[in-house]
UniProtKB/TrEMBL annotation:
Disulfide links within the chain: C285-C473
Record's protein name: Peptidase metallopeptidase domain-containing protein
A GO biological process held by the record: proteolysis
Active site: E222
GO MF terms held by the record: metalloendopeptidase activity; zinc ion binding
Gene Ontology cellular-component annotations: extracellular matrix; extracellular space
Positions with a binding annotation for Ca(2+) 1: D122, E203
Cofactor (UniProt): Zn(2+); Ca(2+)
Keywords on record: Calcium, Disulfide bond, Hydrolase, Metal-binding, Metalloprotease, Protease, Repeat, Signal, Zinc, Zymogen
Binding positions (Zn(2+) 2): C83, H221, H225, H231, M239
Record carries keyword Calcium: yes
Organism, scientific name: Strongylocentrotus purpuratus
SUPFAM superfamilies listed in its UniProt record: Hemopexin-like domain, Metalloproteases ('zincins'), catalytic domain, PGBD-like
Length: 526
């Protein structure tokens, strides 16, 4: 009797492996994004080459030898339970290193809310809540994020157990295979699906058990997506797509921690974790800039709350340094900065004070009061100051208002403040802004930046972009962007901030055009 049962078991198992052939592999590889998109759109039978390439990519993703052959090992892995999100998205698509992947989105706040919309019959509701909270705590312990449960209404991360077709275009598939899926950030809309996580109710969820599917491990993984992480090609990472069974006391791996810190920075007081790929994988690839300015001869700097980043036309020049190590006497948490070519000075603003520097040397007698030094019309607690490349005038920004300052009369021009919305496309607030070495003006807000198209008086096409581009983060540099389109009609017009137009003489147009093309060539990724 025992022998018979063993035989039946062995036979069904063989049948199960044999039933997973080339067609099943093709379905798997297209479902989880292993083919070039043009392979998919043609609808033709894929060539053997593209199948081999896809298998090779799958093997790389899972730490196997990259033979391109549909081995039993590959077939076995493809039949393992996994996350429903595709592989090879975000930075994964261009990243050959064995490490985490970032989607190109993140939350622009760190205090997130969550709510369990329903529960599963597999576990007590109180256990489910405890498991969800524990899963989130792993991410908040590793980063600056915090999570708060809400009892009703909307939450950033809504979670539910559901099965088959459940209204989001990604039906679940019954027991096994896909276990869960989640949605990347971010949205200001109420009840947005962004950040939400869905668990396939067809699975049997367990806690602290080798039986069933471990809810904690699946939840930690899905919340990684809710926060902006893609699938890691490090098979040990929580963010690896395949679920390899219960691991007692599972924790985030270094790769997962490096990923979340690249998006949100380390939990203050906890040392940052070095990524497996060295310093470039660190949290320095977070770029919430608060001020930016050129200096006369000492280069261009962008600032976050604590550090100064020296940048040139190719991006970050050297490791960021504490602000006062470079600009002796300057405080942290600057409000704004700008460089004025005619005086050769760089000005820094914080609260009610400002500092004037000649290159890296503070002039005598600073800080001084903004009210005294700028003719009385400029408010304290500025957000940004910049000299616009379109007309060489100086603009002070606070909240949704801006003031134009006239160095000749040492006062604010009449008719100001005006609404920031005059500047088409830059939004309703401005963390930092500057005219860069390429004579173009850049605006920074919430980890994104926009280049202004001075001729059309609006934000240039293809913006906003992530501010991390300025930091030469490895994955940002690898995304080669085609050069910005330059206006190629012979007549280039100038637009003032009042909207009136005037033409420039042909020679300077040519010179400017040549300069633009030159800078665009150098700065194809800024
Ligand atoms: Ca949501
Ligand atoms: Ca399933
Ligand atoms: Ca600022
Ligand atoms: Zn996943
Ligand atoms: Zn769903």
């Amino acid at each position: 009797m025992e022998v018979k049962i063993a035989l039946v078991y062995a036979m069904t198992c063989i049948a199960c492996v044999q039933s997973f052939g080339t067609n099943e592999a093709l379905n798997y590889l297209s479902q989880f994004n292993y083919f070039e998109s043009n392979d998919l759109s043609t609808g033709h039978l894929r060539s053997q080459d593209s199948l081999n390439d896809a298998i090779r990519l799958f093997q790389r993703m899972n730490g196997l030898n990259e033979t391109g052959i549909l081995t039993a090992e590959v077939q076995d892995l493809m039949q393992m339970p996994r996350c429903g999100l595709p592989d090879n998205t975000g930075t994964q698509a261009i990243n050959r290193a064995r490490r985490y992947a970032l989607s190109d989105v993140k939350w622009f706040k760190t205090d997130l809310t969550w709510r369990l919309e329903n529960t599963t019959p597999d576990l007590r509701r109180s256990s489910v809540r405890e498991i969800i909270a524990r899963a989130l705590k792993h991410w908040s312990d590793a980063s600056q994020l915090t999570f708060r449960e809400v009892q009703s209404g909307d939450a950033d991360l809504l979670m539910k157990f559901t099965s088959r077709d459940h209204g989001d275009g990604n039906p679940f598939d019954g027991s096994g295979k896909v276990l869960a899926h989640a949605f990347f950030p971010t949205s200001e809309r109420r009840y947005s699906i962004a950040g939400d996580a869905h668990f396939d109710e067809a699975e049997t969820y367990t806690d602290n058990s080798y039986a069933g599917t471990n809810l904690f491990q699946v939840a930690v993984h899905e919340f990684g997506h809710s926060l902006g992480l893609g699938h890691s090609n490090n098979p040990d990472a929580i963010m690896a797509a395949i679920y390899r069974g219960y691991v007692p006391n599972a924790e985030l791996r270094e790769d997962d921690i490096a990923g979340i810190q690249a998006l949100y920075g380390a939990n203050s007081g906890v040392p940052e974790v070095e990524g497996t790929e060295g310093p470039k994988a660190r949290g320095s690839c977070v770029a919430n800039f608060v001020a930016a300015a050129q200096t006369h001869t000492a280069g261009s700097y962008i600032f976050n709350d604590t550090h100064a980043f020296l940048v040139d036309l190719f991006g970050l020049v050297s490791e960021p340094k504490p602000i006062s190590n470079i600009f002796r006497g300057l405080p942290t948490n600057l409000d704004a900065a700008f460089y004025y070519e005619k005086t050769g000075k760089t000005y820094f603003f914080k609260g009610s004070n400002y500092w004037r520097f000649a290159d890296l040397q503070m002039d005598r007698g600073y800080p001084r009061s903004i009210r005294v030094g700028w003719g009385g019309g400029i408010p304290d607690d500025l957000d940004s100051v910049f000299v616009w490349s379109g007309n060489g005038m100086t603009y002070f920004v606070k909240g949704s208002n801006y003031w134009r300052y006239n160095f000749l009369s040492s006062s604010v021009d009449p008719g100001y403040p005006k609404s920031l919305s005059v500047w088409n496309g830059i939004g309703t607030k401005l963390d930092a802004a500057f005219q860069f070495e390429n004579k173009l003006t850049y605006f920074f807000t919430d980890g994104e930046y926009r280049r202004f198209d001075d001729n059309n008086f609006q934000v240039a096409a293809d913006y906003p972009r992530r501010s991390t581009r300025w930091l030469k983060c490895e994955e940002e540099m690898a995304m080669v962007v085609s050069p910005d389109p330059t206006p190629d009609d012979g007549m280039m017009t100038m637009v003032t901030d009042d909207g009136s137009r005037g033409s420039k003489d042909a020679l300077s147009v040519l010179a400017l055009h040549a300069c633009l093309i030159f800078s665009v060539m150098q700065l194809h990724n800024i």
